[in-house]
Amino acid sequence: MKHLTLIIISIFMLTSCAKDRLTANGDRIIETRTLSEFNSLRISGANKVTVSYGNEYKVVLKGSSNLLPHFETNLDGKSLNLGYKNANVNHDDIEIFVTMPIITGAAISGSGALDIADSFAPVNEFDLSISGSGDVSVNHELLINKLNVKISGSGKAFLQKVVAREADVNISGSGDAHFQVSDYLKARISGSGEVYYKGNPQLDSKISGSGKLVKF
Hints:
This protein has a single domain, classed as Pectate Lyase C-like (3 Solenoid). It has 1 helix and 19 strands. The protein has a 17-stranded mixed beta sheet that branches. A two-stranded parallel ribbon has the order 1-8. Strand 6 and strand 7 form a beta hairpin. The longest helix is centred in the N-terminal third of the chain and has 19 residues. It is globular, with a radius of gyration of 20 Å. The relative contact order is 0.12.
């Protein structure tokens, strides 16, 4: 009886996994989702996310019609979670376009890309974390009182347009971060990561490995 139970459980698990495997059908559609207030993003997977300024809170998804129903855009407090839940996707073609009036941070898990394409109002604190090989780009000046960056893996933070008064940067692995800072920079690098900064801040740095702290 015990062996029969194990067999039934195994069959159920295999069936569930099979249902979770999705392949993009190429029938691309556009779907708009209007949401309530959020000010930060949490991205999982390999999708590209483009953020634009606007007075509303919405997400536009462009991708295969069989994938969109499985892509979640859920709120957790003031954070917008973007990604699949319980789905393995082949040839993922979903592009995500987010509109929001203010942005205070982002967390990327996986190989996704975040492009902050518009200008946003200054914020007191901006928290950025990258776990994996994802990358973040800021294309217009963003004024920040304190910038917090944590990279684990080979992620890239292209924040040359960010101007911070203070910055606290922690890199573990081979990732790198680029930004401007005026008053104070705390940098912790473990591995071959690199921190590139512009400005004349007071420095507090510790490097373990072949990492670099470079003024540009």
